[in-house]
Design goal:
heterodimer, A: alpha+beta, Rossmann fold, OB fold (Dihydrolipoamide Acetyltransferase, E2P), 6-stranded mixed beta sheet, 5-stranded antiparallel beta sheet, 20 strands, B: mainly alpha, MetI-like fold, 13 helices, 0% strand, globular
C-alpha cells in the first residue's frame, strides 16, 4: 500500500484503450518520475484525458500494464489507488460545506476526528480559503471552488495528483494566478503531479516534462525545452507554437552535420539524422534574423513581405519566398518599419543549431 | 390561461365553496361540525388510520421507486428498458381493475394463499386483504410509478463526475451511495414523498375494495357521511379539513422542490 505523503512513481507499459471500434489510446509506454510535474498535452480527442482516467482507475485499459512504485495496479479500483484528482468543473459535493468537502477523503479513511479537524484547517489555510470554511460550493467564485478542489485532492497526501484541464474554466487573469498557486503547491508537497491540457503555453509554463498526444498516440516526451527546440515530428513542432517550415531537397549527412538545399541554396543543420532526399526544415521565428543580404555559407532564405500585423509590443511580418513558401516572423516595431522601407526582397537567416530537420 | 382558470373556478372552486357553506350551516349554523371533527372518536380514528396508512405507503413507495429509478436512470440499456416497461404498464390499467386484481391474488382463496397452502407452507390462509395490509399493498402498487418521476429527474441532473470524485478519494460504492448519491437526490426524494402522500390522502376506490369496510380511510368516511347517513354537515367539515391539509402540504412541496425539478 501507498504511504501517505510519499510521491509515487508510475510506469505505464503498452497501455491501450478501445471504445468499440474506436481506438482512444494506442500502445502507450511512459515513465512518470517521483515528484515530477508532467503535462499531458494534445488537441481534444487525442487520448490524453483517457490516459488520465486510466491513471485514476476510472477506466480499465484494454491492453497493457500500469505500475505504481513497482506494484501492478492495472486492475486496482479507483478507491484503492490513493490518487488525488481535480476534475474539470471541480466536481465538488454541492450539499457539503467547504470544510466537509475537504474532510471527506479523511473521513473515508477513518482518520480520528481531532486529526481531521486539524488537517482540514491547515489545508484551508494553505489554499487561502480562511473564512470560507462553512460556505457551500455554490457560494464561492470559480477560483475559490478550484482551491477547494485542490485542497480536497491533496489533504489525504496522495502519491499522485491528477488534474483534468484544471484552468480551462477560469478567465485569463485568474488562470495565471491559479497556475502559480498550483506550481507552489507542487513545490511544497513534492507530490507527483500529472495534468491534462490542450494549451501549449500552459504546459510549457508549468510542467517539468511534457507528453504530447495526437490521435491516441504518445508522440514525444521531454522537458519543455526539449520538445520546443527539438520536436521529433511536424505535429509536435507545429502544436508547440509558431514555426516556419521550409521544404529541403538533396538532404545528406556531412561530417556529423546535415546539409540540404533550401530554395536552391545550401543550408546546414547540426547533428546527424537518418533522413535523406526530401525533408522539411523547421525554424522557430524568434531564431530568424532579418537582413538585407546573406553572406555566402550562411543559412538563409530570401522572401518578400506580403503583410504586416501590428501586435503592440512587436510587429508580425508575413513573408513569401520565391518558391511560394509562407513564413512569418515577429520583429521589433522599428525593425519592421526599416524592413518595409529598405530593399525588398529581404533575407531571413538563422544559426545552424536552430534548424530542425523533420521528415516530410 | 384565463379560460383554464375560469374552468377550474366553475368546476372546482364554486362547488367547493358550496361544501364549505354546508360545513358551517348543516344541520344548524355554527362551528358544531368542526367541533365534532376534533372530538368524535370515530372521525379521530379514521384520521389517525389514514395518516398511518399514508405514511407507510409513502415510505414503502419512495424506497421501492428509488430502487427502480436507479435501475431506470443508471442501468444497462436492457435494464433500463425493463424498468421503463414496469413503470409505464400500470398507467394503462384502471385503478378498479388493479384493486380487483389484488383481491384475486390476496384473498383467502386467492392465488397466494392457495399456493402457500398447497406447498404446505401454511395451514390456515393468511389475512392479506380486507384489512389495512391489503390497503397498503394496493395503494403502494398504484403510487410507485408516480414516485418515480421526481426521483428520475433528480438523478438525471446529477453530475457523474461527483460520484467519480468520491470513488477517487477512496469511498466505496456503498459509501458513495449514502454520502453523495442520496443527499444529492434529496430534492427528488422530498418531492416524490409529498406527491405520494398527497395522492394517498385522497384515495377512495382502493381502500374501499381492499379494506373491505374494515379499514375505512378519510375519503370513504366522507362518502359514507354524505351518501349513507344523512350527515352532510360533518362530511363537508371533514372534506374542508382534508383540503386545507393537502393545501398546506402542496405549499411545502413548492417551497422545497421547484416545479421544474419534478418532471
Amino acid at each position: 500500500m501507498h504511504q501517505p505523503g510519499r510521491a509515487a512513481e508510475i510506469k505505464a507499459i503498452g497501455i491501450g484503450k478501445s471504445f468499440g471500434t474506436f481506438r482512444a489510446l494506442h500502445d502507450l509506454t511512459l515513465d512518470i518520475g517521483r515528484g515530477e510535474f508532467l503535462a499531458l498535452l494534445g488537441p481534444s480527442g487525442s487520448g490524453k484525458t483517457t490516459f488520465l482516467m486510466i491513471l485514476a482507475g476510472f477506466l480499465p485499459p484494454s491492453d497493457g500494464r500500469l505500475f505504481s512504485d513497482g506494484e501492478d495496479i492495472t486492475n486496482r479500483p479507483a478507491e484503492l489507488r490513493s490518487a488525488g484528482m481535480v476534475f474539470q468543473g471541480y466536481a465538488l459535493f454541492p450539499h457539503m460545506s467547504v470544510e466537509a468537502n475537504i474532510a471527506f477523503p479523511l473521513k473515508v479513511r477513518k482518520v480520528p476526528a481531532a486529526e481531521i479537524k486539524e488537517r482540514v484547517a491547515a489545508m484551508i489555510e494553505r489554499v487561502g480559503l480562511k473564512g470560507h470554511a462553512r460556505k457551500l460550493p455554490s457560494q464561492l467564485s470559480g477560483g475559490q471552488q478550484q482551491r477547494v478542489a485542490l485542497a480536497r485532492a491533496l489533504v489525504f497526501q496522495p502519491g499522485v495528483l491528477l488534474l483534468d484541464e484544471p484552468f480551462s474554466a477560469l478567465d485569463k487573469s485568474l488562470r495565471g494566478q491559479m497556475q502559480a498557486e498550483v506550481k507552489r503547491l507542487h513545490e511544497e508537497t513534492g507530490t507527483t503531479f500529472v495534468f491534462v491540457t490542450h494549451d501549449q503555453s500552459e504546459a510549457l509554463a508549468l510542467a517539468s516534462r511534457i507528453a504530447i498526444f495526437n490521435h491516441g498516440e504518445l508522440l514525444q516526451v521531454g522537458t519543455p525545452g526539449e520538445v520546443y527546440d527539438r520536436p521529433a515530428s511536424r505535429f509536435v513542432a507545429e502544436f508547440l507554437g509558431e514555426i516556419n517550415m521550409l521544404p529541403l531537397t538533396d538532404v545528406r549527412k556531412d561530417n556529423g552535420s546535415m546539409t540540404g538545399l533550401c530554395e536552391d541554396r545550401p543550408v546546414t543543420l547540426r547533428g546527424s539524422q537518418d533522413v535523406t532526399g526530401d525533408a522539411l526544415l523547421a525554424v522557430r521565428p524568434e531564431y530568424m534574423t532579418i537582413r538585407n543580404e546573406a553572406s555566402p555559407g550562411e543559412n538563409g532564405v530570401s522572401a518578400t513581405t506580403v503583410g504586416t500585423t501590428y501586435l503592440g509590443s512587436a510587429t508580425k511580418l508575413d513573408l513569401l519566398t520565391k518558391q511560394g513558401t509562407k513564413l512569418s516572423v515577429s520583429v521589433p516595431n522599428d525593425v519592421a518599419a526599416n524592413a518595409l522601407g529598405s530593399s525588398n526582397p529581404i533575407w531571413l537567416t538563422w544559426p545552424a543549431e536552430r534548424g530542425i530537420l523533420l521528415a516530410r | 390561461m384565463a379560460p383554464l382558470l375560469l374552468f377550474l373556478a366553475v368546476a372546482y372552486l364554486w362547488p367547493f365553496l358550496g361544501v364549505v357553506k354546508w360545513s358551517f350551516t348543516l344541520p344548524e349554523p355554527g362551528l358544531g361540525q368542526y367541533g365534532a371533527v376534533l372530538t368524535d372518536p370515530l372521525v379521530q380514528s379514521v384520521f389517525i388510520r389514514t395518516l398511518r396508512i399514508c405514511l407507510i405507503v409513502t415510505l414503502v413507495s419512495v424506497v421501492a421507486a428509488y430502487a427502480i429509478t436507479v435501475v431506470w436512470v443508471r442501468g444497462t440499456p436492457t435494464q433500463r428498458m425493463l424498468a421503463e416497461f414496469c413503470i409505464l404498464v400500470p398507467f394503462w390499467i384502471s385503478v378498479l381493475t388493479r384493486a380487483f386484481g389484488w383481491v384475486a391474488l390476496l384473498s383467502n382463496r386467492g392465488l397466494i394463499n392457495t399456493w402457500l397452502q398447497s406447498i404446505g407452507f401454511i395451514s390456515e390462509p393468511l389475512a392479506l386483504v380486507r384489512n389495512e395490509l391489503g390497503v397498503i399493498i394496493g395503494m403502494t402498487h398504484f403510487l410507485i410509478p408516480f414516485a418515480v418521476f421526481p426521483l428520475a429527474s433528480a438523478m438525471r441532473n446529477l453530475d457523474d463526475r461527483v460520484l467519480l470524485a468520491a470513488r477517487g478519494m477512496g469511498a466505496s460504492r456503498t459509501r458513495t451511495f449514502w454520502s453523495v448519491f442520496v443527499p444529492m437526490t434529496m430534492s427528488g426524494i422530498i418531492g416524490s414523498a409529498l406527491i405520494v402522500f398527497v395522492f394517498a390522502l385522497g384515495f377512495f376506490v382502493t381502500p374501499a375494495i381492499l379494506g373491505g369496510g374494515r379499514s375505512v380511510m378519510v375519503a370513504e368516511l366522507v362518502y359514507l357521511r354524505i351518501f349513507q347517513s344523512p350527515d352532510w354537515g360533518l362530511g363537508s367539515a371533514i372534506s374542508v379539513v382534508l383540503v386545507l391539509f393537502v393545501g398546506a402540504l402542496m405549499a411545502l412541496l413548492f417551497r422545497y422542490v421547484r416545479p421544474r425539478q419534478m418532471v
